[in-house]
Amino acid sequence: MLHPIIYEMLSKIIGQVERLALRLEPRRAIRLLGAMPLAAMEAVQRARFRETLRLAAERSPFYREEFRNRGIDLRHVNHPSELGDFFTTSEDLRSRPDDFLLAHADTAFETTGTTSPVPKRVFFSREEIEEMARASAVALSLLGLSRDDIVLSAFDCSFWVSPAVVRSALQYIGCFHVEAGKIDPADFYERASSYRPTVIFGEPSWIIRLSAIAAERSVWPVKFLLAGGENISECARAEVEAIWNAPLYLNYGQTESFGSMGIECRERQGYHRNDLHFIFEVADPDSDGVGELVYTTLTREVMPLIRYRSSDLTRLIEEPCACGLFAKRIGKIRARVDEMVVCGMGNVGPWVFAELLRDVKGPGADWQAVVKHHGTLDLVELHVELPSFGSRREVERALLLNLRERFADFWKNYQMKLYDFRVIPCLPGSLRNSRKLKRVVDERLVSTTISADHEFALPQ
Predict the structure, then answer these.
(1) How many other CB atoms are found less than 10 A from the CB of residue 126?
(2) Counting C-beta atoms within 10 Å of the first and last residue's C-beta, which end of the chain has fewer, N or C?
(3) DSSP 188-205
(4) Contact yes or no for 80/296 (Cβ under 8 A)
(5) CB-side exposure of 183: number of CA atoms within 13 Å?
(6) What's the rounded Cα separation, in Å, for the pair 269 and 266?
(7) Exposure of 196 by Cβ count < 10 A (0-12 exposed, 13-18 middle, 19+ buried)?
């Protein structure tokens, strides 16, 4: 093992090389970074991690208390895995937000995916955003994005990080960019015809709906589409690609990480990960290496996160990718560990459906939400126990009224036909077959055939 002083010197030298590389033409940048020996990459990670640990221990009461209570001697910790059973969770961010804000912040975002009605607030400095933006620009350039392209982005701008990620990355590419926001796909199609974008950004369910509209009318030449914020079935991806005759790539990230932690390449076999800004681990892996993705930020001073549990189930892919890129990969996300499901409705957890059911007469205490595929759309089924199945339509009408009045974003997605919603009546006592009833179930990984005879309109 190298002496700590040598690690620090290596880190500074390689850090300068990295910053130089990210200012070069993207393919030259990739060649330069790809030539970095593995030992050099590990030296950078180690030095940046040590600095993150020092900062957290000095300025954060949360981290300081946790390390002390666990008897962790930070002098001997060189990798997050050496912190034993210590992790940071989303509940920590919600319950003790001030303990994580360690330096002056000038930018904030709020999380959109949570099992709690209380969002997490995440803070950054502009310098940190620029640091991440350069890496994102290189990744987008590898997919073929250039200054000659016309980009239209339809990510939701309401407290969400994705529009800022796109905007900050594109400034380094220098292409033409229109930020549409998450408007109705039909409206977007009409407005986009004036620009004829060569690259389109949006959420998967939104892109599916836009593509269906384009198939009915006409398409224009598109270089690629890029989606983030939720998963998409390979069947739906293939249909979108057939309509546009262009690839659809997925990006992986979270608000807490400032978006991009990984992005697909042309092979689309996992997300090439950003090891210069994060250290990734998998907690409690099974025999196939699948477990909860955990990450530690390496270049954050405002709100560093150490061993943050993502709630996403996946595995780390160490084998080289056929594309030849040096960066290792995160496997496609399998599911969530906290019953929060990302779908066309939005990012929903048990509390969402509990709120929809509040004040609705008829359903019993037991219920279960099931997310399935309905063709290329997501179908959200709310299974409720009813004494009389004849009351199903009244219950459904009441739930849709609550959806409109209590969840504006989810209602907007319903109006845009990004998902379908139905109530499934069940016999009293039939849903609970164990001590604990799983409230939200994602069945989209299972091939299911669903009849398309359901149609329901909200009364005026």
Answers:
(1) 12
(2) C
(3) HHHHHTTT--SEEEE-HH
(4) yes
(5) 13
(6) 8
(7) exposed
Residue matched to tokens 């036909």: 417
Residues of the chain with CATH 3.30.300.30: 341-442
In what order do the strands lie in the sheet containing 308-314? 278-283, 291-297, 308-314, 335-336
Please write the tens of the pLDDT for every residue from 28-62.
666 777 777 777 778 888 989 999 999 999 999 99
pTM above 0.90, yes or no: no
- The pair of structure tokens assigned to 406 is 């209590």
Residue with tokens 């009915």: 216
Give me the chain's average pLDDT, please: 87
pLDDT for the residue numbered 146: 92
What is the dihedral sign for C-alpha 313, 124, 158, 132? negative
> Taking 90 as the threshold, does the pLDDT of residue 3 lie above it?
no
* Architecture (CATH level 2) of domain 341-442: 2-Layer Sandwich (3.30)
Domain 122-335 has CATH 1.10.10.60: no
| Rounded distance between C-alpha atoms, residue 247 and residue 74, angstroms | 46
Task: Name the CA radius of gyration of the chain, rounded.
Answer: 23
Q: Name the one residue in this structure whose structure tokens are 């989303």.
A: 90
Segments in 23-120 forming alpha helices (H): 26-34, 38-59, 61-69, 90-95
